[in-house]
Amino acid sequence: MSNSEWREFVLEGTRTAKVGVTRADGRPHVTPVWFVLDGDDLVFTTSGTGQKAKSLRRDPRTAICVDEERRPYAFVMIEGTAALSDELGELVKWATVLGGRYMGEDRAEEFGRRNGVPGEVVVRIHITKVIAIRGIAA
User: Fold this and answer.
1) Chain-centre distance of CA 75, in angstroms?
2) Residue 11: burial class (beta carbons within 10 Å; 0-12, 13-18, 19+)
3) Mean per-residue pLDDT pooled into runs of 10, the chain (138 residues)
């Protein structure tokens, strides 16, 4: 896929991103997140005390996968480095944007208030590499 094609693919509908991090003892940890793109960054929110945040503070490198689970199948694998912020204004902004994407614009503010609270963090992944393949089983 071209740059514009993979961006369109990952933002289609309400696909989630599966974020992979490495725990301190070396074990992998993968979880789905709501996300959006912001220029050359992928943005999501998460608990500031959860495994993703702990792991990314220790080692900011991550890999993320967004896939199409129907034939002919496709995926975008993104590598990048994370920066975390607990600045409340930024948190409310991105929680609202994410709520709009995944729950609908009519509920964006509700989810912004619900998820943009102290204890949560904004995770901004600066994208360093993308592998995007469409039509795997075509």
Assistant:
1) 14
2) middle
3) 97 97 97 97 98 98 96 97 98 98 97 96 98 93
Decide the pairing of beta strands 28-33 and 36-38.
unpaired
CB 16 within 8 A of CB 90: no
CB 91 within 8 A of CB 121: yes
Chain position carrying tokens 């992979």: 20
- Give the angle subtended at the CA of 12 by the CAs of 8 and 15, to the nearest 5°: 125
> Could you say which DSSP state residue 54 is in?
H
Q: Between 3.40.640.10, 3.40.50.150, 2.30.110.10, 3.40.50.720, what CATH number should domain 3-134 receive?
A: 2.30.110.10
